[in-house]
Amino acid sequence: MLIIKPQPRQEKFLSSTADIVIYGGAAGGGKTFALLLEPLYDIDKSCFSSVIFRRNLTQVKAPGGLWDTASQIYPLLGAESKISNYEWIFPAGAKVKFGYLELEKDVYRYQGAQIPLIMFDELTHFTEFQFFYMLSRNRTACHGVKSRIRATTNPDADSWVRKLLDWWIGEDGYPIRERAGVLRYFIRLDGEIIWGNSKEELKERYPGSLPLSFTFIPATLKDNQKLLESDPHYLANLNALPRVERERLLGGNWNIKSSAGLYFKREYFKVVDNIPGRVVRSIRGWDFAWTEPTGENDPDWTASVRVELLENGEIVITDVVRTRGTPAKVETFFSSILQQDGRGVIQVIPEDPSAGKYVAEKLKIANSSFPILTERPIKDKIARALPVSSLAERGKIYLLRAEWNSPFLSELELFPEGRHDDMVDAFTTAVNTLQSTGGGIETFTIKGL
Description:
It is a single chain. A hairpin with a 2-residue loop joins β8 (about 185-190) and β9. Helix content is about 30%, strand content about 20%. By secondary structure, the chain is α/β, with parallel strands linked by helices. α2 packs across α4. It is built from 15 helices and 18 strands. It has helices spanning about 10-15, 30-35, 55-60, 65-75, 130-135, 160-165, 200-205, 225-230, 235-240, 245-250, 325-340, 355-365, 380-395, 405-415, 420-435, and strands at about 20-25, 50-55, 80, 85-90, 95-100, 115-120, 150-155, 185-190, 190-195, 210-220, 270, 280-285, 300-310, 315-325, 345-350, 370-375, 395-400, 440-445. The strands form 2 sheets. The chain has a 10-stranded mixed beta sheet, with helices on both faces. The protein has an 8-stranded mixed beta sheet with strand order 11-17-14-13-12-15-16-18. It has 2 domains: about 10-250, Rossmann fold, CATH 3.40.50.300; about 265-445, 2-Layer Sandwich (Nucleotidyltransferase, domain 5), CATH 3.30.420.
């Protein structure tokens, strides 16, 4: 007999009798694994079917994600996969399908469907409309099968899910231990959720209503001892995250959000008078703007940050420059900095989706004797700043003493809420490229470097 042993919090999630259960609150708590175990209650019934959603198909297919994890579990129970439509069929005929709801209108693909078990992996990625619309598809004609909704999630202070879980979350943003798994009941009228302590209470207050039971079970990395044993570095990786992401993904904090001073602080950067080591590579990152300041307007800057990689892996910021002006002035400024740096410094310039590609190619052609990389940002500003923030917080980035130190540090501290983030963008581009970790940037190799 096959025995699959869940962890204690996973057992609590799997044994809940609530109509709707949300499980989560931190990374590494075994949430996806628990979600995939939920259908196993009913796989001996030929009439049973379930759908587990991610926001898009790429997330379903991601390495180590839903489909990969299911492939480690379901074949042990005799299930066969139909990769053409991302479905598992068990010996009795029960089905577990993997779907996606990328656009809000995608929910209408399920009009008229009866789905006994609906599951959402990473609920904060879905809209409130998508979630509550799919509740209307959650019904069963399969004898002995309870219709139910299950979802996993990581914290997101700005998500509609945060409001939904408010009773289970303390003022400090952390789950209230005593309320974990406690059932409450609700009805939804005109888009508003009305809570009660029992179905009877709500039915009395709102005759004809059909209250649903709901609960939240928090998860932490400590709940997944198997992961800690198989990958002992995972905890260290979470601890190395910048404060905001560390509080969310390790601490399970539902209140913390991006704000000024949470990614970069002055004290992270040690100011030095000389470069403290041997330089092995130099890179200058750029962020371009093309507007001449006039009157009281305050346009963006063309900013450039030069960084040096030391032999010991640490980084020194050695130069920060910026200017504002017409395209012709900016191009002249760019060429003058290249002449100043020489061929020993790799220049990294952005290739934006529209005109940026043309501009990048134009600058490369006009300065063809210099080493220039183009980069395509494929993540948002905060995502690109995260690995750089982590390095800075760990004291791995130095600052060469100069007049530009103060305005540069001020812009870093105000990120992402400051009026300007041009120097931040140039800085994160340079460091991410220097570290060769991607950092949301796809780079092209220069021959001979």
